[in-house]
Amino acid sequence: MKVLWFSLSPCGSMRRKGSNLVIQGWMISLEDHIKNNPDIDLHVAFLSDVENEAFCFEGVHYYPIFHSKSKNPVKRVLERKASLSKIDARLLPAMLKIVEESKPDLIHIHGTEERFGLIAKHISGIPVVYSIQGLLAPYAEKYFSGMPDKDIFWHESLYDKVKLVSYRNEYENFCKRAEREKAFLKDAEYILGRTFWDEYVTGLLNPERKYYVVDEILRCPFYNLRWDKQRFTEGRIKIVSTISGGIYKGYEVVLKTASLLKRYSGIGFEWSIAGYDGQDKWVKIAEKLTNIKSKEVNVVLKGLLDAPELSELLVDSDLYLQVSHIENSPNSVCEAMLVGMPVIASFSGGTASLLDNGLEGILVQDGDPYVLAGAVVELSKRFDLAKKYGENARRRALARHNRERISSCLADVYNKILEDYKKHSHEDSFC
Length: 431
Prior knowledge:
single chain; alpha/beta; Rossmann fold; 2 domains; 8-stranded mixed β-sheet; about 45% helix
């Protein structure tokens, strides 16, 4: 079976350059198992800012889709003003050419957020399946996290506004992409998901889609390490979170929660944030809007960490906190569960599909720093309970993210889709 992936991640091709720090690291983990299946001939197409020819590496065929950005500042602003449809029209021929050259039996599009779904209306005779990562329309509802967009816009630099990279500009583009995504999902025949949340949302947008559950393989280091503390760090509890990306990831909640802990709890703590550094735009704006400085409330910004660095940070910490306002199935929570950490997470999106409240961790209302701080205080007094949560979480995560099971499951789903597709009188020719 020849399978063509469309992915935001360059997957294992980055290894040619010796790079370890890549986006969507879980894609590499999945690729490593799927490519070893003797029944699957894997091909991967991905967006690239470098104009390269197709190549083969470690048994996988790679197709870079050249998506250039002008080095001229004026032209880059004009590119941002260009309509989404114009950019889509420019890249569509390249994507269709890859389909024509690779001649796959099945196309697997990882994520509905990007423009890869454009190809679906232009091909026949080949089943197309989408994996749900996030879903833009419900994300847009939480985009500003309850913080007034006018206040945010006021604190952004004139430079960002002129260059059309303000959060208001990003939100407008986000909403346009959400409408495009809805069109993809409306016509989608096959969907792969992982949570009740993505099942319900895709079922609303397309009641006729066929939905399959396929879990994710996580990055290797998190399988190999285990949180095995016998007590919390004496005198200074170590809290850790992984946060990067948009406003809806909840950094302002970190600041408010840390402020409450410092003011009321009497607990010594240090809160490490992996993903952000002190120069991050949203960090600076969140500090201004909350009037809380990270350093003043014991928040330490670690910057972007690779998988080995992050896994070591997790097992050295005491509590994992997830503060997002909306998520589908946050791998950050899954990684913390996999190493066996006690987790406190926002009850948002599909997170409740990952852990049961009061059994494998604690779920709290998103955007509520008081209950989040209170949960930290409660667990800080009950190490035995925290350890039990971590053990239960690890047990569930090991089962959910079993690599052999997932790779076998995905191959089975591919076969089921091919069988179903053949039953429904689809044309066999590429158009």
